[in-house]
Amino acid sequence: MFIITSEGLKVYYEVKGEGQPLLLLHGWGASSFGMRSLLEHFSARFKVYAFDLPGFGQSGEPVQTWGSREYADCIFQIRQKLGIGRAHLMAHSFGGRLAVILAAQHPELTDKVVLTGSAGLVPQRDLGYYVKIYSAKLGKGLLDLAGNPGKKLHRRLLSRLGSADYKSASVQMRAILAKVVNEDLSAFLPQIKAPTLLVWGDQDTATPLEMGRKMKQAIPASKLVIFSGHGHFAFIEKSGEFCRIVDDFLM
Hints:
By secondary structure, this protein is of the alpha/beta class. The chain has a single domain (2-123, 183-249), classed as Alpha/Beta hydrolase fold, catalytic domain (Rossmann fold), CATH 3.40.50.1820. The protein is built from 8 helices and 8 strands. The protein has helices spanning 36-42, 68-81, 94-105, 127-161, 171-180, 209-218, 234-237, 239-249; strands spanning 2-4, 10-16, 21-25, 47-51, 87-92, 110-116, 196-201, 222-227. An 8-stranded mixed β-sheet has the order 1-2-4-3-5-6-7-8, sandwiched between helices. Strand 7, helix 6 and strand 8 form a beta-alpha-beta unit. The protein starts with a strand and ends with a helix.
């Protein structure tokens, strides 16, 4: 389904299930398709909304060079138009930036927060590093997860996830990436009052584990779970364990 924002931006979303709302926010270069397994699993208990963030998947591109705050404002506006009240937030990587801002600015609308491999802090790396991470490594990492039996499925997933990577992105989306990777959202973290679960792979090279540890120190009611031997896509690599941990947390 699509919804049109007040600026005329066309945003795609999927919704499934009944009950308390749960919002899924994907990472850079991905789309709601990359979180389909989470949509399917958690829709058994919640009314799950999975968005294609503007500039990704089937959603339109921002006209201006947005930062994380503009993306978060867009999601806030959409949830108002859809009548989504108090909700859980679940986010990966770039989507974590938006969840951090939303949870900090709208505690009255935030129940619990799950951040996995979340961005939001600034490690000592330049833009070139992120170009490499969010393009070539995105595809290779997902294919490596599948092994021989699952490679065909993951090639299909890759074709959908990798469609908006840096190399194929528009000039506008490249400008947005250059902006967001330099944003430090650390001031928002102590403002998050909702119980927060942080799930990290200790081999994450896109958002290193040290970022997860810093978030754990800064967010008052937070817990950090570490998946040993796994990387930036730990929620896919260890999907069964991830879902079990999150199920317990959201009870």
